[in-house]
Design a protein that fits this description.
96 residues, 96% helix
């Protein structure tokens, strides 16, 4: 009987120790899960910001391309005007 009683006390101590270990592990798991959720939130926010910047960059690129095209048209028009004026000066300066 004394042996069984000692075994029950040892089992009880082992059970308490096991329960404490499990509670500690559960607490650590919950902390890790909370940290993981925070990281996921940060990653989602960074992805959202990256997408917004990418969209803005694309829109700016399109606007700049339009401006470049317009400027190229103006340069062509100015080149034509210069050629015309040079032709007129050539005719005005020609004594024949």
């Amino acid at each position: 009987l004394a042996g069984r009683l000692n075994m029950l006390f040892r089992d009880r101590r082992a059970h308490v120790y096991t329960r404490q270990l499990m509670e500690t592990e559960i607490s650590e798991i919950r902390e890790l899960q909370a940290a993981d959720r925070r990281r996921q939130t940060v990653i989602s926010e960074l992805l959202r910001i990256d997408h917004r910047r990418s969209t803005e960059t694309s829109e700016l690129r399109t606007a700049l391309q339009g401006q470049i095209t317009a400027l190229q048209g103006q340069v062509t028009a100015l080149q034509t005007l210069v050629a015309t004026l040079q032709g007129q000066q050539g005719l005005a300066g020609d004594p024949t």
